[in-house]
Amino acid sequence: xxxxxxxNILALVCATYLLLLVLSTLFAAQITSFDPKAMAPLQxxxxxxxxxxxxxDSFGRDVFTRTLYGGQVSLVVGVAVTLLALLxxxxxxxxxxxxxxxxxxxxxxxxxxMSMPGIVLAVALMALFNADIKTVVIAITIPxxxxxxxxxxxxxxxxxEQEFVQAAIxxxxxxxxxxxxxILPNAxxxxxxxxxFVCASAILLEAYLSFLGVGxxxxxxxxxxxxxxxxxxxxxxxxxxxxPGIVLALTILSVNVLGDSIRDLFDPKxxx
Length: 272
Description:
The protein has 272 residues and is an all-alpha fold. It has one domain (2-27, 55-271): MetI-like fold (Orthogonal Bundle). The protein has 12 helices and no strands. The protein has helices spanning 2-26, 28-31, 63-98, 100-114, 118-128, 133-159, 163-170, 175-183, 188-212, 223-230, 239-265, 268-271. It is elongated.
């Protein structure tokens, strides 16, 4: 019971943090009066103060302001990648699990994608195309699709021979009706958990790409770009990389904790 209460409290704290983060990024213009891209050489490398809560970077830009605006990019990427990966991966998993003739073909394609490290595949795609947010979303989505597809496929293989599915076939339901009305709802729990992990992975991978200099342009405020610019002056202005890193770490942690909580909700043993 104590462990369950601790988990519930931790999940509530993480949900509250994510809610505050979303509101802060949405209303960043009302929270801070600084321009995230405006340079102020006379105010460069200032330590955290009441005027600059997270200090300033080597160009005199307010780190707190850039962190807020960087959250907009990270959250958009995380949500967009999650939706696309779920949509495409779920469709592939349903088709692969239900049609045995297509299963080997689709799964071998998914295995081929999974054999390449996600960061390497994303870097290669970013090098081939223009560095904008659409390209970032696509580059991060592709490595996540096989994970969703294999999860849905495993659920379909377990359910398709059950009596309620056979009854739907006998009553004349079409294949799309069987897949989306009778089989897919049974995958809702695992998909909800997987969605949180995909979102956390997408936010982290976008930060990797930006930190390596192959993501969005350096002048665009993202958490990865902020830390990438701060690493050059970390010995004299550690705050330029520390505070954005803490925000990124707390965000990833909160999303993963919520995923664990959702998994516990769909776990019959956990409920008992």
